[in-house]
# Entry
Amino acid sequence: MTASERLQSLAAEFWEFRLREFPTIAHDVGDPRYRRELFRESIEDHERRAGAARAFAARLARIHIAELIGQSRYSHRLLQRELDSIVEHHRYATPLRPMLFPESPDLMIAFALQRTTIRNRADADDYLARLATLPGYFADRRSRLLAGAAAGYRLPRALLPRVLASVEAHLGLPDEQSAWMRPFATLPSGDVRFEDARVRLGQLIANELRPAYLRWRDTLRDDYASRCRDSIGLSAEPDGAAYYGFLAREYTSTGDTPAQIHAAGLNEVMRISGEMDKVAARAGFGGDMAAMRHHLATDARFRSRTKEELRERLEVLAKRIERRIPEFFGRIPRMTYGIESIPEAQSAQLPPAYAQPNPPNRSSAGVFWVTGLPDRCPTTMHVPLTLHEAWPGHLMHIALLQEMDELPAFRRYGMMGYTAYIEGWALYCEQLGHDLGLYDDPFAHYGQLEMEMWRAVRLVVDTGIHALGWSRDAAIGYMTSHLALPGPTIEAEVDRYIGMPGQALAYKVGELRIRGLREEAARRLGERFDLRALHDALSGAGPVTLELLEEHVRMWMDDAAVAVS
# Structure
């Protein structure tokens, strides 16, 4: 076998390993073999994965990258990165570190369940079997939580109320509105094929699911609360500073240190502040940013009255954007998407919007989810949010990546492991509103800058908390001084950075690298620069690290420069 064939075989074997270990991935890609499972999250599961990753890495080392070309070389490097990541997470005891907000177990269950489609009796039976595994999942999370506390890894006390509120919100819903029942909600009422399954689901909820959720809540409230720590930064945990440095590298896919990222954030905050002052002057506020923000916060024109009105406004905007897409992109996916409201019970714990990509088997469309609380999504956010989450952002980008049949499955379907590329692209897409003429109005332009500032302050606040020892109040104060977001939203954002260290760094770091590539290409190619072709080169790299993306796009620049010389 050639080196390329051996790599293909090993990559396929690694993907099979991923499907076995993470059944939700199998569900998302339409693989039916693990339909009766949801999570494998015990301490023993994580031990097994680390051992398997080391064995895979030893075999990968015997495939010489010098014998590979093109995307195969990328895949070799990226497979090595994924294996190293599994081993490093195990070394830093990630499974014992209680990361329960914003990705609490109950919320992750709800996300997994909302991607379920039931078409026949077998689907319903498999779904009930998956639900029946949830008590065991909560028991595994409890074991990890308590083992972590014994080893010195403890949840920041500031997050406990949010974790409890999340599980209480799920418990507070009547059965017919619960996440457990939602996959049945779209089935025709009175369909006799599902009568028995509905009865069994009701019994499962009453006898196993609600009791399991209640035991989890009681564990947090009664057994664990006294073990929480008062500090909020990772530096307070064993090996915390080194772990945070690893997470920064992991999420940004660069070698940037927390200190470098903090400095970049400060520079971006300064630059964007200057742009905001100019926009305030153009809007008639004479550069008085406080007056402009007060106007935006108090004028009812910038708010939707209902969640239905909010959703309908975004639907109209999305169609306006879609009409212009071929002007800027040659590669356009075959899949479509829809816009839905996030249930109000979940909206308070979630961002104003998020994307749910279409499954690779094309069994359903992608979904652009928007908050069910209209005050959390003023009209100034509509354009950047739609560009970010829908087309040409996440939903278009991920659909394109899934269509790259030449890539190994671990890249095509595991693109969320490349956060800086995925989120950096979506943040870059927000700025395409200028090319589309959607920010000609100063209030719309301010909305784009506000969203960009949001991502810039993340660099400062996330690193401030976990590398520089900032307090929660200091983080909230810094964000409040630079953003017009409501106080509760800022507090929730700060708590997100406390609970998910490093993840928020990916957005702005990724966007800065992608914007830098656009500027570099424009300089090198001059009047022959083709933005449409650049966008196709950026998406055509496939899921990659930022450093590989730069290599890929610079090779495209070299080819383009030769072609026009």
Notes: The chain has a mean pLDDT of 94. The longest strand covers residues 337-341.
